[in-house]
Amino acid sequence: MRRADASLSRLLSDWPPGQDGDAYVTVLEERAEQARRIYELEYGARTSLWVFQSGANTVAPVPTTLPDTPDTPDTPETSDAVAQEAEGSPLEEPMRKDGNPHAAYRVVVDRAFLYEPAALRALDRRLERGHQVRVVDQPLVKLVVADGERALVQLEPGRSMELRPPLVLLATELFEAVWRRSRPYLREDGDLSSTDRRILQLMLSGLTDAATAHQLGMSPRTVQRRVRALMDTAAVSSRMQLGWYAMRNNWV
After folding, report:
1. What predicted TM-score, i.e. pTM, was given to this entire model?
2. Domain range holding 53?
3. Are 243 and 125 contained in the same domain?
4. How confident is the model over 22-80, as pLDDT tens digits?
């Protein structure tokens, strides 16, 4: 999976410019242009949006206010908004709080994203909207795929590339491979509390007790005490065994 991710990034970085290549690939380097294209992909999607989220929003600035449709002409207000950074890219978090009601979202996040200050709140909002959210431990390239027909991939901070058929198949295959090997974020079945599920999810993703405590708004000692209680419930003697037990018993 990591090799596939790296291969896609390397292939796109080396893609030769030219008339034929331009039919399949568009390189986006202006931050406002990237923000507008992300917006158009998300709210122009008819059936599905597949997203990789990783770390801070460095792909494009996100408008704080947006027109009702992608076709609305720019005004000084909206142009200024595009130039501002705010929480909300579909590579990070939807530009609108309600997301695209016509598209089924599948979102995969990595450890770098879980370290972000508002990460858990953002993921909780996604679950409330009915989005499917999963977690992986390895770093992800930032990616959004709309309807399996268009994809936007981050090559480096501030530089992205839009793919069209047939190259978009590279992005869809990568997404499916990662999705199959990811784990659900916050299962709701069973007797485990939502707080304990979050602690386990962050622990499995490799966050320290201090980082977990910061994300959940509690002290590191409280995190340690709850982990100890979970180990007692699972009748295990190490955190590694607890992680194995949690995965086998659908705690996460």
Report:
1. 0.72
2. 2-184
3. no
4. 678 898 888 888 888 999 999 999 999 999 999 865 544 443 333 333 333 333 333 33
